[in-house]
Amino acid sequence: MAEHQRPAGKLRQLPIPEYFQRAKALDIQEIASHSEPANKRWMRPATGTYKLNVDACVNENTNLHSVGGALRDCQGRLLLEFGKQISQPLSVAHGELLAIREGVKLVYEKNFRDVLVVSDSVLAVQAVKAVHENLGYIGACASDINLLVQDQFISGIVYESRLSNNVAHSLAKFASLSPSPFVWLNGAFPHWLVEFVMNDLS
What we know:
The chain is of the alpha/beta class.
């Protein structure tokens, strides 16, 4: 499995406080960075599998928080997209975990299997890995996610660059402007979303 798709459970074990400090620093560093290599784009999953990118965001004008995500197959085709507003999360990592949880629930309900879940938050991914630790409200949300994936329809929950998460981020932003939750299936996708997907694949 490629480095960018290494499941959270396979990462080298470090003491949780130390690892969370590093993860948080990486999140902050990537938010501030504008010089990442241009080749960090969306990567196709293995043949016969699916990839679910998820993200959370806040609308700076309205202060509304939202999550969104996109499921694609090994050819990059859109299969499922979602977005919804959420109550204000207690932290950035909490918001990203809520995005993961919402996406995992949806792909389960729609009967997709062998799904790789991708977040652009190192901290959120590590929280899921460290669910047995005392992480407070973050740990509670991570526990919910782990309960949802016990039948192994999820092949992994991993971190990838923000530059490879443009579609999910755009859906989360759109959800902050939408009056109600949305789930799009079977090709009923807006043109602006299809353009984002094509840019990812070009």
